[in-house]
Amino acid sequence: MRTFDYSFLSNVVVNSNILQTTNIVHSLRADAKNRKLAHKAIFDRLVSVAKARSVMASNAIEGIVSTDKHITEIVNNHSEPLNHDEKELLDLLPDVSVSTIERVLAQMLKEGKIQKLGSFKNARYKRKLKT
Question: Which positions ≥6 away from 85 have C-beta within 8 Å?
């Protein structure tokens, strides 16, 4: 384990502006903590909105298309993602052959009911939401 020697700090002179600034920061943090406790529902809602907006921005960068409402529901744990890969479908439907799944997925793609995300082994399918 590393041992640190802080003895040099005893000779450091702290500027009054720095001390004043640290006191202001401490006071602001205390005020923010008190506001957060007093208005917990509002802060929880703000965190929820921030998470949803972050996911929306990330999805936009990655080219993932979904409605804002659905993303918000997923982030708030009110819904499950709507995409699956072929292996998941095989696990869910063990009596259905691979060729049947591929044929049905191709038909659904053709009809515009789903969209394909990725390609080859990384391909996933997502239900198109009605807008």
Answer: 123, 124, 125
Give the β-pairing of 124-127 and 83-84: antiparallel
CB count within 10 Å of CB 115 equals 15
CA 94 – CA 96 distance, rounded (Å): 6
* Same-domain check for residues 20 and 76: yes
What's the confidence (pLDDT) of residue 81? 55
pTM above 0.85, yes or no: no
For residue 89, the enclosing domain spans 82-131
Q: Which of 121, 95, 81, 89 is nearest to 108 (CA)?
A: 89
**Can you say how many angstroms the Cα of residue 63 is from the centroid of all Cα atoms in its chain?**
15
Model confidence pLDDT, tens digit, residues 42-85:
998 898 888 888 888 887 887 777 777 777 777 776 665 555 66
Distance CA 7, CA 4 (A): 9
Q: Does residue 5 form part of some domain?
A: no
